[in-house]
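[Automated response] Your request has been received and processed.

Submitted sequence:
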Amino acid sequence: MNASVSIRILGPFIFLGAIASGFGCYECMEGHSYRVAAQHEVATVGHIVHVPKSRKGIYQYVFSVNGVKMDDSSKICFTPLAPGACENYGQVLVYYSYQPYPNSLLEDFADASSFAYRVGKLLLEIGLPPLVLCSVILAILLRKQRKERADDPDLMHFIPGE
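Generated structure:
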């Protein structure tokens, strides 16, 4: 099996493994940030100012901290203070923290951390095995091909143009 065929066969697995592993690493870093934030979180009452028209939209909300009005957005709204508050521009519980960076969520940071770690772990479990295995196989095949070329006496004394 030559190198170009190996790359065509193993390349997509390496690419998909790298993509899944990259997103898994990102989710694990996000989970760590949320875990740190959970240790310093404070809750306050906020108000929804924009409701997404679809499930993939983003909720926008405002809240005050020490008299300073802030606004932020969230993909989810798990903290309504009344039934239907998320969909009807109602009041919500906003969790915020200044550690490791200023951040707020409409969800407890500990819950967000747990979810991000689960997703990250799953993506790493999916992405790392094919990435590592295919990379090792490709490296072995390329090394074998390079060794075969080095051992071929016709290629060592090949003069272009003859």
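Summary generated for your ticket: Residues 19 and 131 are 9 Å apart (CA to CA). The beta strands are 42-50, 59-65, 68-74, 91-97, 103-105.
If you did not submit this request, please reply to this message.
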